[in-house]
Amino acid sequence: MADNKPTFHHMDNSQSQRILWLLEELSIPYNLVSHLRNPQTHPKGPFLSPDTLKATGPYGKAPVLFTGAADGNRYITETQAIATYLLRTYDTEDKFGLKNGDWVRDEMLCSYIQTTLQRTSTFMLMLDFGLVRNGAPEMGPAGKRFDGPAMRDALKDLERELKEGPEGGFLMGRFPGRADIILEFPMSMIKQRNWVDLKNEFPALDAWLGRVYERPAWKRGIEKGNGYDLTVFPQRPHL
Fold this sequence. Notes:
Blueprint: E1 7-11, H1 17-26, E2 31-35, H2 51-54, E3 64-66, E4 75-77, H3 79-90, H4 103-128, H5 141-145, H6 149-164, H7 178-193, H8 198-201, H9 203-214, H10 216-224
Parallel strand pairs: 1-2
Antiparallel strand pairs: 1-3, 3-4
């Protein structure tokens, strides 16, 4: 029988940390290849993926997963695609509920996080990198809206989903679902970079993130990773 152990390519200080968390939650054997993000002083690509990661395939960005031989050694990129493959393949007890749980809720929340929330996070990061200027006349009203208010609107929706959704402390109930895995990275960005005072403004989300960080699988993923400091990128004052 062909070996089906996946190989995961991870980069420090990146969204691939949440896939390490998922791999540890699944408690499956896997190969881990760690890459270091280009330093700020890199002459051509500061903070970008290193050449070692680019050499893995045409996308060349973390996360990257190669399936085992039984699944054809397939090359999979993008967090949600990797998470879906791992759960459909290895979550034989359906703890994440992707097979027999409320998959419609899970899909809706994943889509919301990856579009609405992630868009606001990306804009805040662009402000921090100086790619756009907050309050600049050429930005018009949108410049001020995306410097905080749009993110808070998205967080209000997710705060409500936590409070009114299934009991148990996670978006999908007592056990993290795929949506919880997807949500970790933007929430860690917001928390670490202090874009929003989560504890005072969105206490349910702040408590949710605390529960994530206390999970043994999360802690194992952090130990196996090579750093998760999301404050290494430039930071500027916000409106």
